[in-house]
Structure formats: C-alpha cells, structure tokens
Design goal:
Elements lengths: L1 H18 L2 E4 L4 E4 L4 H22 L6 E5 L6 E5 L14 E2 L3 H10 L1
Antiparallel strand pairs: 1-2, 3-4, 3-5
Helix pairs in contact: 1-2
The structure holds zinc ion.
Length: about 110
Amino acid sequence: MQLIFCGLGTIFIGLAVLIKPVFYSQKYSITIDLSNVKWFLGPIFLCYGIYCLYISAKREGPEFTVEYWICPNCEELRKFVGNKTRYCKKCKKPLEKLNGFYKKQSVDTNK
Ligand SMILES: [Zn+2]
C-alpha cells in the first residue's frame, strides 16, 4: 500500500520538476534552478514513480482478481473482486471463497 503513495509522490515530484523547475526556499533563501536538467530529472522521477505503481499493482494483484465466493447455506455462487467479506443476499450469511470451501467441507465430513 505504501508503494502506491511512494509512486504517486515520485510522479508528483517529477511533474513538479517539469512544470516548475525553479524552487525557492524562503527559509534558507536559496533558489534551486533545475531548468537545465528538468528533461533529465523529470522523466527519471516519473519512471521511478510508474515503476513503484507497477510493482505495487503486481504485489497487491489478488485484490484485483475476480474470485468465486459461495454461500455455505444455499451454496449460491457469486463472483467478486477483492478480499472484502461479502454476505449472501438471501441468507445474510458471510460468503466463503470457493477456492478451499469444498476442501474444508470434505475435511469436516472425514472426521
Ligand atoms: Zn445463501
């Protein structure tokens, strides 16, 4: 999750360098002029930011994949994106992931 903010922050810095390459600090009364290197520094920040976003999207992939959920009561199948707990509309019971549901059930009946 932090990588997303890191990526967005870096993209923001990259854009800031490209749009406004002259920074002036009132506190230290210094001016940093990046006009000469903005086409060099800006893209580096942008690329690094996009890279961070790409890595975080890859790492948190399961949050964006579609998974099948099943109601343990009426066994109705539903398709959802993400790991949030959902409830069956009919029975109001929390749904379980289909992946592993029947495995768990067969373990229970084997007892
Ligand atoms: Zn149900």
